[in-house]
């Protein structure tokens, strides 16, 4: 028996940090252990393993499989990868190329697999260019291990996104949120002031099952062009620690309290700026007849160095105004006591 460490990118905030499994040998392609999870019937390879030599597994693997190493060889940090058993086998001469760690479908592949009609056998240099159907490589009557690769092509450039209706709608939604929030005013650029460029960032959002939930377009400021003392000052903002979250949930569970969770949509857009920051108009949404003007930010945008601090200042003042008290040792925890008479 052994415990394998689960990398942060493969687990949620409150998930366990380790997985109980069975040590079955050593990898032939890297300095790592080969392991098997009886509960999920999955094999994987990991270097971060703690063996429990005094314990042994009394069960047996139902089917003997040729366990292949599916480790990522991206840099020298080979942590963990799974191989999903499928009743399929490559034809003679075909090989299943390991998924690289930085592939967009890496985490969703490991968490429950992907239902797809195609698989990629591309090398890192051919990523996203070569796809073949599973029907072309099926060999009935043989058991093998397969890693399905599902690549979602999120556009990088505005010129590509403008050709797809779903990304146009996503950009319209972002612009509408910015306009409702009165994020900037169009003004002439004052002399001696610099304008900061902005860009569109596109991301396909998936749910826990790996299904596409929505398409998100975010307008981001190129904050790396900011200069300290000119268009930003302080940037530090406190962030809730996981120990605090666990403590609150533990107290709520012991007292059988109800716990509510909420999400502020486009939260950073609510932060009020005190600095003088000018940005260019977003590509594709320039005001007709005012294309030469720039936006003077009244509220924060994603990408600015001071955006997290501006948002924290806004929510902090709001909660204090509503009668909450900030904990001395945890600036992200607010408490409000209310006496209820029955």
Describe the structure.
With 342 residues, the protein is of the alpha+beta class. It has two domains: 2-146, no CATH class; 158-335, no CATH class. Helices cover 16% and strands 22% of the residues. The chain has five helices and 17 strands. The strands form five sheets. A seven-stranded antiparallel β-sheet has the order 5-1-2-3-4-6-9, with no helix packed on it. A four-stranded mixed β-sheet has the order 10-15-14-11, with no helix packed on it. The chain has a two-stranded antiparallel sheet with strand order 7-8. A hairpin with a 7-residue loop joins strand 16 (325-326) and strand 17 (334-335). It is extended and about 75 Å long. The N and C termini lie far apart (54 Å). Residues 61-132 have low confidence and may be disordered.
Summarize the structure.
The protein has 342 residues and is an alpha+beta fold.
Chain-wise SSE layout:
Blueprint: E1 2-5, E2 18-26, E3 33-37, E4 42-46, E5 49-51, E6 80-86, H1 106-110, E7 118-119, E8 132-133, E9 144-146, H2 158-161, H3 165-180, E10 184-187, E11 195-196, E12 198-206, E13 212-221, H4 242-255, E14 278-279, E15 294-297, H5 307-321, E16 325-326, E17 334-335
Parallel strand pairs: 11-14
Antiparallel strand pairs: 1-2, 1-5, 2-3, 3-4, 4-6, 6-9, 7-8, 10-15, 12-13, 14-15, 16-17
Q: Which whole number gives the mean pLDDT?
A: 76
Distance between the ends: 54 Å
Would you count the extended β strands for me? 17
Classify the beta-strand content into a percent band: 15-25%
Query: Which structural class best describes the helix and strand composition?
Result: alpha+beta
Largest sheet, strands/sense/barrel: 7 strands, antiparallel
Number of domains as seen in the coordinates: 2
Number of helices: 5
The rough form would be described as extended
């Amino acid at each position: 028996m052994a415990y394998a460490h689960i990398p942060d990118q493969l687990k949620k905030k409150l998930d366990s940090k380790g997985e109980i499994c069975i040590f079955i040998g050593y990898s032939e392609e890297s300095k790592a252990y080969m392991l098997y999870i009886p509960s999920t019937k999955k094999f994987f390879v990991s270097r971060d393993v703690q063996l429990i030599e005094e314990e042994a597994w009394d069960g047996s693997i139902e089917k003997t499989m040729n366990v292949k190493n599916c480790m990522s060889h991206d840099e020298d940090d080979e942590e963990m990868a799974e191989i999903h058993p499928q009743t399929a086998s490559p034809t003679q001469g075909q090989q299943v190329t390991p998924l690289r760690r930085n592939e967009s479908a890496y985490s969703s592949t490991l968490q429950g697999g992907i239902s797809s009609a195609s698989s990629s056998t591309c090398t890192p240099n051919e990523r996203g260019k070569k796809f073949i159907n599973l029907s072309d490589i099926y060999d009935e009557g043989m058991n093998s291990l397969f890693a399905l690769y599902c690549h979602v092509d999120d556009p990088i450039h505005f010129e590509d996104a403008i050709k797809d209706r779903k990304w146009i709608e996503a950009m319209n939604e972002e612009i509408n949120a910015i306009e409702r929030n009165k994020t900037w005013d169009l003004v002439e650029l004052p002399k001696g002031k610099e304008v900061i460029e902005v860009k569109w960032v596109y991301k396909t959002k998936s749910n826990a099952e790996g299904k596409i939930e929505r398409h998100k377009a975010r307008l981001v400021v190129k904050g790396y062009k900011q200069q300290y003392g000119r268009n930003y000052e302080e940037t530090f903002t406190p962030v809730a620690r996981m120990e605090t979250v666990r403590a609150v949930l533990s107290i709520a569970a012991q007292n059988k309290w109800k716990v509510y969770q909420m999400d502020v949509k486009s939260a950073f857009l609510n932060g009020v700026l005190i600095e003088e920051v000018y940005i260019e108009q977003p590509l594709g949404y320039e005001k007709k007849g005012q294309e030469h003007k720039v936006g003077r930010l009244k509220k924060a945008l994603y990408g600015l160095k001071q955006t997290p601090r501006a948002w924290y200042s806004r929510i902090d003042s709001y909660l204090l105004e509503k009668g909450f008290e900030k904990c001395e040792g945890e600036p992200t925890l607010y408490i409000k006591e209310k006496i209820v008479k029955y």
